Queue: 3 jobs
Job 1
Amino acid sequence: MRLVRDDGAFCIGREGTEPMTDATLRPAPNLLSNGWVKAGLILAGIVAAAMLAARLDGSGTAYKVFIDPFVQMVELPDLFVQTIWEGLVTGVLYALIALGFVLIFKASGVFNFAQGIMVVFAALTLVGLHEKGVPAFLAVILTLGVMFVLAVTIERVVLRPLVNQPDIILFMATFGITYFLIGFGESVFGGSPKQMIAEQLWLPKGAIDFNILGGRVTLQKIDIAAAIIASVMIAALALFFQYTRIGRALRAVADSHKAALSVGISLNQIWVIVWFTAGIVALITGIMWGARSDVSFALEIVALKALPVLILGGFTSIPGAIVGGLIIGIGEKLGEFYWGPLIGGGVESWLAYFIALGFLLFRPQGLFGDKIIERI
């Protein structure tokens, strides 16, 4: 054994043999270090254990949990399609809410905790203006003006003084915005639930029945309208930020604030545009959710379901918000309908966060998020 020279570097080798370079010394790739491989192995293990438990369990509990729900899906396909449809509509609306978070996070690197209350505030403003005698569509335009004033105010009063501050400071500032809007909204509009002006906005009502797969599937017309409007809104925003000058400026700001400033991009203008766009998203979301139920401060809790959506899709990805929303929406409905009765219901309130926890363990950057590598 001796040191031999190979292209200017000393390598270990025996006389008369090929010297060992960095390539030959590099360890073989460890497949278990891949999050997807680990998740697949764990899922396969869970499925195998569930099937074994179902065969060995005399009480039938394992069968009811792991086998029977899938048997019901096959035996009653119409109910399965109905559940998938309801989850699809919910998922599209989740994706629309998450889009508001993504836009602000891409522009400032801060999770906007106030997005949920912005949904409520925009919907209450619309309903409140109509109660004062303003025609419905004029009320929509005036509400957009209110959201623009809110965006300018947040940029001037909150964001501009906190430029170059740590992200946690900006995050806490969004908490302040949240509780200010809650207090201001309650003082102006009151705390009682209100009825969304769906009929005045020409949103359809009623249902459509289909006889398919040996059963009947009922589609609410407001759900169809909500899915179409939300999908068009998401597609329009994705195209706008992908192919317009403002969209390119937003991507530059998301990559580096200093680099964006060096090429003449105004952070202040970008922040106003992004917050106003998030306000538009909040208004559309408030109209759709309010038309399906009512307009109240409880909508803020629904809007926070965007957090597990973002964890699944990635905080900086618009396609991730769409895919994450669909996974959470459909997963919630399936869990509530097929597994909820086994544990007394309530699955829909916590399943999204459980799914998000699993993704944090195996793929913390999300499905479409960028993997962060920091030099130590």
Job 2
Amino acid sequence: MRGDLRRALALVRRRTHRGPPVRVRLLEKPGCGLCAEAYRALRRVALDVPLDVERVDITNDAALFDRYALRIPVVTMEERELDAAGVDDRAIRAWLRP
């Protein structure tokens, strides 16, 4: 019992974020399976890296749709962009580092 409690507390300490969250935008459109997988990958990465994920539907903005319609899902952070189709969690973590 005591060992289980120690392991649980160690896990909580590792998963407790100590800095401000990194703001990222996920550019997606409804019904996109790759977009849903990219969002799930971001949620998994958010367990280790504090993330604030904003989901943006590109079909609501003509300029975004023209620019990203063939590239979605795209993750943006400030001026950087990542084509996230088929990207694994490790690649997202590496991309998030400055």
Job 3
Amino acid sequence: MLKATVCVPVARDGRSLLYSYFMANDPEEKQPSASPKKDEPSAVNPSAAASEPASKPPATPAIPAAKPPAAAAPPRPPAPPKEGPVALENDLVKRYKERFGEAIREAWIDRKQAILVIARERLVEIATYSRDEEKFDWLSDLTAVDWPKREQRFDVVLNMYSLEKNERLRLKVYATADERVPSVQGVWATANWEEREVYDMFGVVFEGHPELKRILLPDEWQGHPLRKDYDILTQDTAWVRENLGIESGQ
């Protein structure tokens, strides 16, 4: 009996090529599932998963503790009293009162400045005493203040300084619009120009002044600009037109 040997080609996976041919062309034959790819995750073993502890939930961020309420601010100290005139009765005032009596009407201190309100008619006498006896040898300023609602509307103010004592003193007299104030030009020469300025701006007349006339404005100017009842827009229209050839523009 003859024996025949049939050689069937075999594929690398151990299957014959003929078997692979029929498997590929048989629609009813199910294809074996492909082996899982290396990069795909393998199925999770339930028993292994059960043995692993569950992952911890994310920690809830801690809520910062509330700040304690701020302490109440300490109360503010009371405001210092405003400086103002205070009655003055020192050695200087006593000497003036002993010398001139009732002519020293008032005495006070305001912002470290000694002030004497004196009788208008005795101004030259008291000014001379201030220069010679109390050594107030410099008349630093002579000016005025207008209080139109007051009967004696003008304060005429003399500010004096003693170079020897390094001390200041203010003399003040009251006057109505019609009353004349004695000139102290003979006591302090500088009063000549200062009294002219007060006359020019306020209209105060200084009795005994050697040449009382305007010093800042033209002689023909009407009115006195630093009087409170002088309208700031008022100008001597006729003077401006006549001398400058223009309208005042106010």
